[in-house]
Amino acid sequence: MDQFAVKVFVRLRPSVLDPAGEATKSASIKLGAEGIKSLRIGKMIEVKIEANGENEVREKIDLLCVRLFANTVIEDYEYSLEKL
Amino acid sequence: MDNFTVGIVVFPGSNCDRDVSWALEGCLDIRTKYLWHESSDLSDVDAIVLPGGFSYGDYLRCGAIARFSPLINALDDFVKSGKRVLGICNGFQILTESGFLPGALVANKNLNFICDDVELDIVSSKGGWFNNRDEKQTINLPIAHGEGRYHCDSDTLKKLVDNELIALKYKINPNGSSFDIAGITNEQGNVLGLMPHPERACDEAIGGTDGLFTLKSLILK
Predict the structure, then answer these.
(1) Averaged pLDDT, B117-133
(2) What digits encode the pLDDT tens for the residues B89-101?
(3) Distance (Å) from the C-alpha of residue A54 to the closest C-alpha of chain B?
(4) Residue B144 burial (CB < 10 Å; 0-12/13-18/19+)?
(5) Would you name the residues of B annotated as active-site residues?
(6) Residue B135 above 90 pLDDT?
(7) Is the minimum CB–CB distance between B161 and chain A shorter than 8 Å?
(8) Residue of A49, B70, B185, B213 with fewest CB within 10 Å of its CB?
């Protein structure tokens, strides 16, 4: 069994309004940051997982993303993995 | 009312379970039974209410963790058998997360937790959950939510409209919901999810009785 570190990014789909992102964008501009065109907030989930090879990790993480980490009605996900 | 029993599901973090029980037992004389979320035996209840609150602290997304409870797993057969399920507020969020109803509920457009009374149009008679014998009847119910903005893609919205699955619409949209949606049913009509709280509008002394009809309709076959 190998151990992998996986970073999952869950983001609201582009078509879904992100009011928290909008509020943070507005605060960023008040802080004096210039040039911000868009700001959207997502989640990053770190998982350490054991599996036999990369394919098995992807299988497990895909299932977790679709069933739990993301609600695919409103969110997209992507992930990167690193063998430890 | 015979032996008809409404099961009220209690998750860690539910906080409207007692209110629903009070409204059903005290105002409508309907027997209730609390169902702990870890039980999967639904054999002695005839209808189910998923009450409002913050199941599992709303961690990850509202309703996202609750859908994995043994009780929600058992709900599939219950719904397929045609028995009635009412999801109020967090209960509505759980019903969408678990796929019993389409769409999702996301953060209110203005990011405020909104606690208010709202006017609602009864749009559909599907399932007999609302008294709309007069065309376009309006009712008043309280809302209390931070994540009540109904969202779905355009195909789903078309399906909701075409199949008359939109039960309730806000007269003045408080949270940015698509199409002013406040409540929807499944295609069979035996599952209703809504953000407003009918159980908080069951007694004149606390501001109205417009919620009585919906709770009473739990006993419809």
Answers:
(1) 90
(2) 999 999 999 999 9
(3) 26
(4) middle
(5) 89, 197, 199
(6) no
(7) no
(8) B70
Question: ipTM score here?
Answer: 0.81
Tokens of B212: 């009585």
- For residue B29, with 0-12 CB atoms within 10 Å meaning exposed, 13-18 middle and 19 or more buried, which class applies? exposed
Average pLDDT over residues B147-169: 96
What percent of chain B lies above the pLDDT cut of 70? 97
Burial (Cβ within 10 Å: 0-12, 13-18, ≥19) of residue B155: exposed
CB contact under 8 A, A74 and B104: yes
